[in-house]
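Input sequence (250 aa), recorded before submission:
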Amino acid sequence: MKSLSTQERNAGVESSKCVKVRVMQTADRASFDGVTIALHWTTVVLVLVLLTTALLHAQSHNDPTKALLLRIHQSVGVAVWMTTAFRLVWRLTNAKLPPFPDDMARLHRVFVQISEYCLYALLLIQPTTGLIATITRGRSFVLFWWDIPSLTPHYPTLQIVLLSLHRIGAWTLIALVTGHAVMALIHYFVLRDKVLQRMAPIVGMQRGLDKLSLRARVQISRGGFHARARRQTTWVRGRRLVFGLPTFEK
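Predicted structure, token format:
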């Protein structure tokens, strides 16, 4: 077989680059801005640490371990409060918020917005009730690497009320976070829309590349493209391109 001409090779490279650029631009248009995405996933990690330390603290019977877990829990709680506060400020000033999908019902949009506002509220209320409950013990405590002296006398009744509210808020937060995650997975695997990709653009790019690869394989299988497609694909891989050409000519 004759090797491909320089013109054909250049055309193949340009075609692949154009397709890759189109996939990236589509993902960018459908996603939140980078700061919002970073704050979102930072919050996810912090909340998982909060829940894990709370669970381990409740099950532990070793006093030094319980003290260490409580210290981590309290410090991460303050970090969650600060991250959420900054996230709200960013959302109201510079955040890029993509619109809802056109086919999403109005009632569905209202439900999503309410659950989102409830999550923001809990991420601010939970650390607040926990910190005030700690202060009302009337003892010194540790946040991060700082020793905080006793700030108030001991208020046992107020402390019990605050701890009860903190537990109720924790279970409510678990329910909302679980529902949020389940709905994101349903949108991705069942509805197959771009809701999850808005907060995780890399997922959208991977799905776009998979579709292009499938389209290329379908075009090859139709006949009349075997030899040329195979030569072009081999040559493109030689140039370290991520995927083969999506279209082929007879």
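Checked by second reader. The first strand starts at residue 141 and ends at 143.
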